[in-house]
Amino acid sequence: HLLECRIGIGVDYRGTESKTQNGVVCQKWSENSPHIPKPSLYPNASLEENYCRNPDHDIKGPWCYTTNPETRFDFCNIPECEEKCMHCSGENYRGKVSTTESGLTCQTWASQEPHAHGYIPSKFPEKNLISNYCRNPDGEPRPWCFTSLLTKRWEFCNIPRCDSEGADFFYITFGDIATSPPAIAGQKCLVGNGEDYRGNVGVTETGKTCQSWASQEPHAHARTPENYPCKDLEENYCRNPDGEIKPWCYTTDSSTRWEYCNIAKCDDVITVTGTVPVVPPQVPPQVPQKVPQQVLQQVDDCYYDNGSSYRGTTAVTTTGKKCQAWISMRPHRHSKTASAFPDADLRRNYCRNPEGDTAPWCYTTDPETRWEFCNLKKCADPETSQTLTQNIDCRVGSGREYRGHIATTVNGRTCQEWQSQLLLMLDVGKPNIHRFYVLEELLVAVFQILILGPGRSVSVYNNFHFCGGTLIQPQWVLTATHCLDRSSVPNFYKVSLGLHTEAGLEPSAQHRTVEKIFKEPSRADIALLKLNSEIKITNEVIPVCLPSANAVVAGGAECYVTGWGDTKETGFPVIENKVCNRPEFLNNRVRNHELCAGNIDGVSDTCQGDSGGPLVCEEEGRYVLHGVTSWGLGCARPMKPGVYVRVSRFIPWIMRTIRDN
């Protein structure tokens, strides 16, 4: 029977609605007037008659081309289904249950009270985090929610599994095709992150034997065949039931809870068997988006402007290197994912320009080369060339060849002459040079001063530091409280800024002593240092921006740390506290006023000498201080990310302390 409502974004909607949300009749998919659709690009989307459909997985739901020549397409007003049961582990559950299994009311996903969290609906549109409905955005055994009870952070919801008879409306049939999740014809090699891997490797990458998924010895766990019925957790074979970066398993070694497995890659070749198409998890639709006809036809190996609209299939850089797949985090971890850039068509390993760079580019499969521009030429544009001869005050693409005479900014400010060296007022937290250098501008080193005794001279340990910090105002530095355990005397410490080496011999270096120390009163690992005089703001010394009070960074956001210890500078994703507190990671050690960040595979992390330094996240071209480096279990250990004090929780204390002192 047909279902006249949608589940989630309506990819499986097969109803008969044929008008847009504004009441305009839809154009038939098979007709070429007044618009020219391309139904052949979507062979499995059931593009019949003029019914609304969502063949390209648009997050706004089903749509259609319209019979109005002035409106190419519009969305349809399809009501959302209220699911009464869940399939598998409820990853796609879109029902409206909003109480936990113990009867607690769920906290609204868009709220940060009473529990701050990283599951921000706008950052995870595909997870359908609506109202306070139970969902499963992170690969748990079943849907859950944060609770409205301060003493209970989160709890599972009691959602029944759909029975095999199809009594619940989720099972909708169209001829011989069922919309309930098909059994996946799994891969015997690695595609993407390996969620559909169904091979029989049962050994980890370090050679340890895998523990059977049905066993609770030597490691008790919740990744059981009963909790994940669709993940094929057979025997002790490596699997990826919860969206990790690749297949893994618990080990039979009692001292090693789990490890990744070394599964051979399929070299991006996807084999489909049977009559049901198999789509790898998280791969965006391999078709162009709803764009004007002339762009749809423009899929050759050249690009217009800066290539943001390029939708070709070139996957080689200017030096001949093969592009890394956008879904992959190997060999280079990154934040340019299809969910973060839904309009950029980040599919396969095709060259793209998701952020408005000067030309299409890609990450490379060479571990030594993070990214390069692609081997593409610019499309000829005779109309633009003709315009250039008539008016030099226009630009092509990013304007690299612009030679006009405009000398004011978009805000009306007069530009400084290029030959001038006058120092202009610098924007707080805004980089003036490449990120890998500007982060050093935000970092300060805290040096120890040896106090020899009353009335005696003071000496500095040459070339020795023990902590980092961050300049937040010309006379104020934010650091970690544990960096100040050696003494409570302010002039025991010296602060140095504008350094690029620990020797501190650069002309840009500035040194100050500490006038006052302010430790956070509730004993959180965050402290303020008031310097004996203001720092001069220069190109090498810039205060960082502070976040708004109680601001939360979304899970998966790419942030950066800088330190004077082993880290220097590195970038890695924020990990939601709920995930970080799982037994296999930090096992409930992370508190609400802290946040986790790091690479789960342990490639890089903060370490000794980095304490007190900044964790910053780029927001609208500025670096915002979201974390103060606090603690970790070792350095760069797999499954043990670093922990940072969440700065936004202490904004009222920071501002009050500065104001009163």
UniProtKB/TrEMBL annotation:
- Keywords of this protein's UniProt record, alphabetized? Disulfide bond, Hydrolase, Kringle, Protease, Repeat, Serine protease, Serine protease homolog, Signal
Pfam families noted in UniProt: Kringle, Trypsin
User: What sections of the protein cross the membrane?
Assistant: none
Output one GO BP term. Answer: proteolysis
Q: Which residues form the Peptidase S1 domain?
A: 409-659
What InterPro entries does this protein map onto? HGF/MST1, Kringle, Kringle-like, Kringle_CS, Kringle_sf, Peptidase_S1_PA, Peptidase_S1_PA_chymotrypsin, Peptidase_S1A
Disulfide links within the chain = 85-162, 106-145, 134-157, 189-266, 210-249, 238-261, 302-379, 323-362, 351-374
Q: In what residue span(s) does the Kringle domain sit?
A: 4-81, 84-162, 188-266, 301-379, 393-420
Question: What cellular component GO annotations does this protein have?
Answer: extracellular space
Give GO MF terms, alphabetically: serine-type endopeptidase activity; signaling receptor binding
Report the superkingdom from the record: Eukaryota
Report the family membership. Answer: Belongs to the peptidase S1 family. Snake venom subfamily.
Name the record gives this protein: Plasminogen
Source organism per entry reads Ophiophagus hannah (King cobra)
Q: What is the lineage of its organism?
A: Eukaryota, Metazoa, Chordata, Craniata, Vertebrata
